[in-house]
Design a protein that fits this description.
It contains 5 helices and no strands. The protein has about 120 residues and is an all-alpha fold. The protein has one domain. α2 runs antiparallel to α3. The radius of gyration is 16 Å and the shape is globular. The N and C termini lie far apart (about 35 Å).
Length: about 120
């Protein structure tokens, strides 16, 4: 039960941080490209890479903190469902170039951000 509460609390905080961040970025940079979701997902990938890299280096947080931060906060902060919905929106608007650009850079940048976070912790 404790684990479930830790994931739920972290997920709730991550979801609120995602909502605030997406709105803030979208208001700063309005346009057709879903920059808010992209930045949130990129940041979440980088953060989970750092956390995983620290665990790999044996700089381990307690299992409770890992649940709270990785499964909870990062899981709530990043959003695959918003990514797919915005991608479908670009297709419906017949913005094929932006659709493929968003798809490619989201996946590639997400993988690179996670890898960079891991590498950052290996110094």
């Amino acid at each position: 039960m404790k684990d479930l509460l830790l994931v739920g609390l972290g997920g709730g905080l991550g979801s609120m941080a995602r909502y605030f961040s997406q709105r803030w970025i979208t208001n700063l940079f309005p346009g057709a490209f879903p920059l808010g979701t992209f930045v949130v997902n990129f940041t979440g990938c980088f953060l989970i890479g750092i956390l995983w890299g620290l665990a790999y280096k044996n700089i381990q947080l307690s299992p409770a903190w890992n649940l709270f931060l990785m499964a909870g906060f990062c899981g709530g902060f990043t959003t695959f469902s918003a990514f797919t919905l915005e991608s479908i929106g670009l297709l419906r608007q017949e913005k094929l170039f932006l659709f493929f650009l968003y798809l490619a850079i989201s996946v590639i940048a997400g993988l690179l951000a996670t890898y960079a976070g891991i590498k950052l912790t290996r110094f």
